[in-house]
Amino acid sequence: MMSMICRRTRNGSLFRSYSTASNDTKLIAQKLMSGNRGALSRAITLVESKLHNHYLMARQLLSEISNTRQNNTLNTVRIGISGPPGVGKSTFIEELGSQIISKGDKVAVLAVDPSSTITGGSILGDKTRMTELAGSEMAYVRPSPSG
């Protein structure tokens, strides 16, 4: 099923985008909860996006996930790592992530640099600093813009 979403751009012209089954929040939530990395990527994009239709979809997606989580017990851990440039954040994250993966668990790294006004930021620059982790099917590494 496909539906069209129309909105006006800043200059007043009409912008059309199409919502397909791949954009269906229930489907994204189901895939996300089953560990699908593509669904994780799509979910993060929806949450980070400044587009109004993405905002609405993100709210619906978060609601779907919340409803699912109430019925399931998930064991998740979130860790925040910060520090000045050159102190070994990337090295530490790669080693910690590799240890987690070696035990059979999955890991996701969302790298954000709130101080980077030039690039929009990634605390780790890019995935090339964590080649082992970024290459693993058990890991998801994503540089994200700040703000």
From TrEMBL:
Source organism, top-level taxon: Eukaryota
Pfam family, one: MeaB
Molecular function in Gene Ontology: GTP binding; GTPase activity
Annotated Gene Ontology cellular component terms: cytoplasm
Family: Belongs to the SIMIBI class G3E GTPase family. ArgK/MeaB subfamily.
This protein's name: GTPase
